[in-house]
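Training component of the fellowship. As part of building independent skills, the fellow (R.M.) carried out the full modelling exercise for a liganded target. The chosen ligand was glycinamide ribonucleotide. The inputs are recorded below so that the supervisory panel can assess the work.
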Amino acid sequence: MLKKTKIAVFVSGGGTNLQALLDAQKSGILQSGEIALVLSSNANAYALTRAAEHSVPSAVVVRKEFASQQDYEQQLKQILTEYDIDLIVLAGFMSILSENFTAAYPKRILNIHPSLIPAFCGKGYYGLKVHEAALAYGVKVTGATVHFVNEIPDGGEILMQKAVDVLPNDTPEILQKRVMEQAEWILLPKATEQVAKALQKGI
Ligand code: GAR
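Fellow's submitted model of the complex:
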């Protein structure tokens, strides 16, 4: 049998996308890879509880505890090597990664972004801010994008996208929830399986 692709999920907050990946692992939607590590930028992230509930090892690495970005990323790399990680999935990870880090894992870092890239993405667009911007612009369709991560914020190759309607009277919170339910929680496990499978086969 082929060895499963070892996945690290990077989180910072609630971790509903991590939950979608854990559920996908259980249901078999994610079968070519196994979630071997949850790494959080924040010691209080609820995502850490989700990891513990599923007996997935976790680590907390906080940027401000390091003198430089280089030291911080060196620590991340060391942990990834310790756990023999093949694929990194950024699932609501709010800490910036430099080119020094992203270049070390070409086509091995995935990110989920809560809009249809190239709309409402790049520096400053994260979490609820993305949905606030979509509502302020007045778009009638938004969605989510899974892409490979490179040195350009939200600029790497797009793997999958899914559109979601914006409805009258939407608030950023209501829209965020719809985008998660109708797009993110479906798309991220699917894209993760696709990449994990390709890596497993050495493609
Ligand atoms: C998700 O909506 C994710 O797409 C977004 O943060 C939220 C995290 O929620 N990510 C970004 O904005 C990245 N630029 P979660 O912790 O419940 O998965």
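The panel noted the following from the submitted structure. Helices lie at 16-27, 46-53, 69-82, 99-102, 128-137, 172-200. The pocket of glycinamide ribonucleotide is lined by residues 11, 13-17, 91-92, 112-114, 126-127, 130, 180, 184 (CB under 6 Å).
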